[in-house]
From TrEMBL:
GO terms for molecular function: ABC-type oligopeptide transporter activity; ATP binding; ATP hydrolysis activity. The chain crosses the membrane at residues 40-62, 74-101, 166-194, 265-283. InterPro entries: AAA+_ATPase, ABC1_TM_dom, ABC1_TM_sf, ABC_transporter-like_ATP-bd, ABC_transporter-like_CS, P-loop_NTPase, Type_1_exporter. The lineage of its organism: Bacteria, Bacillati, Actinomycetota, Actinomycetes, Kitasatosporales. This is ABC transporter ATP-binding protein/permease. Residues 361-596 form the ABC transporter domain. The keyword Nucleotide-binding applies. It comes from Streptomyces tardus. Residues 1-22 are annotated as: Disordered. Pfam families: ABC_membrane, ABC_tran. It is found in: Cell inner membrane. It is a multi-pass membrane protein. The keyword Secreted does not apply. GO terms for cellular component: plasma membrane. Keywords: ATP-binding, Cell inner membrane, Cell membrane, Membrane, Nucleotide-binding, Transmembrane, Transmembrane helix, Transport.
Length: 613
């Protein structure tokens, strides 16, 4: 198995001390909308038009009350009334169009974020996934981006719409009466201060909530998989796991309540004050008249109050939008953390393409360590595997066997030295060439929750049915598949649990046969199988290995006696190399490993020569 690298801290959650990064974060959010600026400009035009049309209604109302009705001008009254109806119709049409366009843009941005994060994770090195919970990754892609949906799809439009409405309404109010306008806007600084306080509180709670949701997602992924269910039931932990989940769920419920109620009373206070403003305006108009100020016409007063009431909705919405933006910054922070992760294994700027590799593999003074400051896992490894030959790597657990093999397909990059394929450094090869040239069959076979055919075609999507059958026959699994009620359309189940270990390994071999790679890496592919199953799988491996360069990470030494060369690793260094017979005659580490596997009951020569069956 591939050893896990040392634990590296996972990306941290957003905290209140991130305030200094907010301008930069806002700029990054705006960049997401840049490809759609033409559509957003159209939304802006629609918003401005809707705001101007809606502001015209109170002026039409003033003319109705001050002119058309007192002077009994029926024609003018009809025109003004039709104008108010037309304003309502146009406002509604503009609103529907702007919602359609803004929602489309928002969903495109959501799509860009999802695919951007997924593509970035596809390029992350293997060590990232060995230290990151699957549930955490799923939470970022599904949970965080899903929670941002309302913000991304409607916030931009809401900001423009409400800001335009507030500005247009304020200008109209000033045109009607500047004194009443000052009365209406006197409390605005208080409202802004309250909304900022509420926004900071919701941002903090949102970060906590998303972290808790990620914890729950990881728990569900681990405990409700087939392996998790088997482990929980066989260990008698089902009830305990249910209690743990209930506790995590309770914490999430508490956070949801806190998030919903954060600043609710403060914002309600704003709503009460703004709802009471009409009474204050009527009082102010009367007070100005009593102290000798100019009288306001009934139409002007009603129009002003109508505008003020119209100001209530966009102003409150604008304050709430500011609160939502601050809360959503925590979500954007988590997404940007993943987008900013360094990709340490990258394709060369001018990659070399192999049309068909011969398969010669060389390790030239290779040194590798998971931690730059720690002890290297491999040290100064020099090794040549000629094309079409087989190499077996043996040694005690932790000697660096799997690490050596996984340097070839670049699951890790060397710390020093180089690994070459047909004389070309694997770091200089394009990813497609390297993937086509090197096939890996590991001890932990992974099968998709799909049909047998879909699992096989994962290696070659264009494979015909005849090619699937040929690959399955070569892997000695066709007869078993054909005997199933649904044949190649049989769903293998979660991680292939409808098949035995040997059957899964042979399916994995058939999948690799379809790819037809010149270089084959077998990472302890039979170590977890019983002797009889191992014999069947080994026959399939022998058929697959014919004519290919094969690197075998050996756990059972009986599987490598025919290798063209065998190397023994000890603490990351090659301490022995040769054929099976040469190493037995040397009677050193390899011979000791053979005797240990035989349990000391038979001479090494007799044991290693026996059939694995």
């Amino acid at each position: 198995m591939l050893p896990s690298p040392p634990t590296t801290p996972a990306p941290q959650q957003a905290t209140d001390h991130d305030q200094e990064t907010r301008p930069g974060q806002l700029r990054r959010i705006l960049v997401l909308f840049r490809p759609y600026r033409a559509r957003l400009a159209l939304v802006g035009v629609l918003v401005a038009a809707a705001s101007l049309v809606s502001v015209a209604t109170p002026f039409l109302l003033r003319e109705i009350l001050d002119v058309a009705i007192p002077e009994q001008r029926t024609g003018l009254l009809t025109l003004l009334a039709l104008g108010m109806i037309a304003a309502a119709v146009l406002t509604s049409i503009f609103g529907v169009l702007q919602t359609l366009i803004s929602t489309t843009v928002g969903q495109r941005v959501m799509h860009d974020l999802r695919t951007g994060v997924y593509s970035k994770l596809q390029r992350m090195p293997l060590e990232f996934f060995t230290r990151t919970k699957t549930g955490e990754v799923q939470s970022r892609i599904a949970g965080d981006i899903g929670s941002m949906q309302a913000t991304v799809t409607s916030t931009a439009t809401s900001l423009v719409s409400n800001a335009t409405s507030v500005i247009a309404t304020t200008v109209a109010m000033l045109a009607l009466d500047w004194r009443l306008t000052l009365v209406s806007l006197a409390l605005l600084p208080l409202f802004v201060w309250i909304s900022r306080r509420v926004g900071r509180e919701r941002k903090r709670i949102t970060a906590e909530r998303q972290k808790q949701m990620a914890t729950m997602a990881a728990m569900v992924t681990e405990s409700l998989s087939v392996s998790g269910i088997l482990l929980g039931r066989t260990m008698g932990r089902s009830e305990s796991l249910s209690r743990d989940f209930a506790e995590e769920s309770r914490r999430l419920a508490d956070l949801e309540v806190r998030s919903s109620m954060a600043g609710r009373w403060r914002m309600a206070t704003i709503g009460i004050i703004m709802a009471a403003l009409p009474a204050l305006l009527y009082w102010a108009a009367g007070a100005m008249l009593l102290i000798g100020g100019p009288a306001l016409s009934i139409g002007t007063l009603v129009a002003f109050v109508t505008l003020q009431q119209g100001l209530l909705r966009p102003a409150t919405s604008l304050l709430n939008t500011g609160v939502d933006i601050q809360a959503s910054l925590a979500l954007f922070h988590r997404i940007f953390e993943y987008l900013d992760l360094p990709v340490t294994i990258t394709e060369s700027a001018d990659p070399h393409r192999l049309h068909r590799a011969r398969g010669e593999v060389r390790f030239e003074n290779v040194t590798f360590g998971y931690e730059p400051s720690g002890r290297p896992t491999l040290s100064e490894v020099e090794l040549i595997v000629p094309a079409g030959t087989s190499l077996a790597v043996v040694g005690a657990t932790g000697a660096g066997k799997s690490t050596l093999s996984y340097l070839v397909p670049r699951l890790y990059d060397v710390s020093d030295g180089r690994v070459t394929l047909d004389g070309v450094d694997v770091r200089d090869l394009d990813f497609a060439s390297l993937a086509a040239a090197v096939g890996v069959v590991s001890q932990e076979t992974y099968l998709l929750h799909a049909s047998v055919a879909a699992n096989l075609r994962f290696a070659k999507p264009t494979a015909t049915d005849a090619e699937l059958v040929a690959a399955a026959e070569a892997a000695q699994i066709h007869d078993h598949i054909a005997a199933l009620p649904e044949g190649y359309e049989t769903v293998v189940g979660e991680r292939g649990y409808r098949f035995s270990g040997g059957e899964k390994q042979r399916l994995a071999l058939a999948r690799t046969i379809l790819r037809d790679p010149p270089v084959l890496i077998l990472d302890e592919a039979t170590s977890a199988l019983d002797t009889r199953t191992e014999h069947a799988v080994q026959q399939a491996i022998d058929a697959l290995s014919a004519g290919r360069t094969t690197l075998t990470i050996a756990h059972r030494l009986s599987t490598v006696r025919q290798a063209d060369q065998i190397v023994v690793l000890h603490e990351g260094r090659i301490v022995e190399r040769g054929t099976h017979e040469e190493l037995l005659r040397r009677d050193d580490r390899y011979a000791a490993l053979v005797r240990r596997e035989a349990g000391g009951r038979e001479p090494a020569e007799a044991t290693i020569g026996k059939s694995p069956a």
